[in-house]
Amino acid sequence: MHEIGLLRQLVRTVTDFAAENGVSEIREVVVDCGELSLVIPEYLSELYPVAAKDSLLQDAKLTINVIPGLAECDDCDEIFNVIEHKGYCPGCGSFNKTVLSGKDFTIREIIVPEEG
């Protein structure tokens, strides 16, 4: 379960960003989690409170966007969901593909309270 390590790094990254930019409160952190990234969104949700405890993110919400694992067939150019079709092109049955999306785990947004 490498999700706890990812979350600890996320907390460090966001905390460092906040310190460098004079941010004293984080309301929400939005991450993109690709279907092909080997990161399990449910584990992220469950472990986030533990990783964020006693940090600037302790009261911040974690929002996880699951990014579909899309690929283009190298033989017939059809674009398809890799997970849904078990890696095979639904058009021609080929296993030859170029992955287009869904491999990354990325911090998308850091949302702070509005000033005023």
Topology:
Layout: H1 3-20, E1 28-34, H2 41-52, E2 61-67, E3 70-73, E4 79-81, E5 97-101, E6 105-111
Parallel strand pairs: 1-2
Antiparallel strand pairs: 1-6, 3-4, 3-5
Helix pairs in contact: 1-2
Task: List its traits.
elongated, three-stranded antiparallel sheet, 116 residues, three-stranded mixed sheet, hypothetical protein PF0899 fold
Gross morphology: elongated
Uncertain spans: none
Strand content: 25-35%
State the helix count. Answer: 2
Instruction: Report how far the terminal alpha carbons are from each other.
Output: 42 Å
Residues in helices, as a percent range = 25-40%
Structural Rg: 18 Å
CATH architecture: 2-Layer Sandwich
Order of helix and strand elements from N to C terminus: HEHEEEEE
CATH class: Alpha Beta
The CATH topology name reads: hypothetical protein PF0899 fold
Assembly type of the chains comes to: single chain
Strand line-up across the major sheet: 2-1-6
Description:
- It is a single chain.
- This protein is α+β, with helices and mostly antiparallel strands and 116 residues long.
- It has a single domain (3-111), classed as hypothetical protein PF0899 fold.
- The chain is 26% helix and 28% strand.
- The chain has helices at residues 3-20, 41-52; strands at 28-34, 61-67, 70-73, 79-81, 97-101, 105-111.
- Strands 2-1-6 form a three-stranded mixed sheet, with helices on one face. Strands 4-3-5 form a three-stranded antiparallel sheet, with no helix packed on it.
- Strand 1 (28-34), helix 2 (41-52) and strand 2 (61-67) form a beta-alpha-beta unit.
- It is elongated, with a radius of gyration of 18 Å.
